[in-house]
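Entry for the shared binder. Reason: the reviewer on the internal report wants the predicted structure included alongside the sequence.
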Amino acid sequence: MAYVRKDVSTLTAGERRRLVNALLALKRRGEYDEFVRTHIDFYTADGEDGLRSAHMAPSFLPWHRRFLLELERALRRVDSSVTVPYWDWTRNRTTTSVPWTKDLLGGNGRASDRQVMTGPFAYSAGHWTLKEGITDGKFLTRDLGRSAAPLQLPTKGELQSALDDPVYDAWPWDSTVRKGFRNKLEGWGSGSGSASWRNHNRVHRWVGGEMLGGASVNDPVFWLHHA
């Protein structure tokens, strides 16, 4: 059955509600936490050594495409009208724009501990307790824009520079390669700090909180980013 993934900024109020309800249903069933655990298991925070099928490798894109399809199939078993929308971070670039609204993903974390206090995925709402993670934290956290050292989302030009590369990937097929669409899109760059975070990787850094590590799936924006 063919279906369309929409720009999240074009979703109707009903579409937003059905997406949120389907995500919450997967969480209640324990299915959502299985997706979090899978991503943790395939995360390569220690660098190039070991299994790299999900990150820092040519299979970065197909692995995440399959991962997203599996989540989407689970959502559609709850509500067949639901598809995963995509967040165009080259257009919706502020901390208050879509998808950071109360009826969708909720907003930024509070200053004291970065805990998200608004929206359906706030811990205080009682439906989104973190059960799988790399820390013992129970609540969703965000630091949109990285308050201590402000960071900008990637621009259309930066994204286009990856799209314009005619080579998909190149030797040595890891995060150090300086040419090829895959690594330019994944966002591993030379240098240190913010200069080395590009495209996909910089979006993770910009959102902050749970999106910074292997448990990034705990923030539902993970799916909108990868869609």
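Summary line for the report: The radius of gyration is 17 Å.
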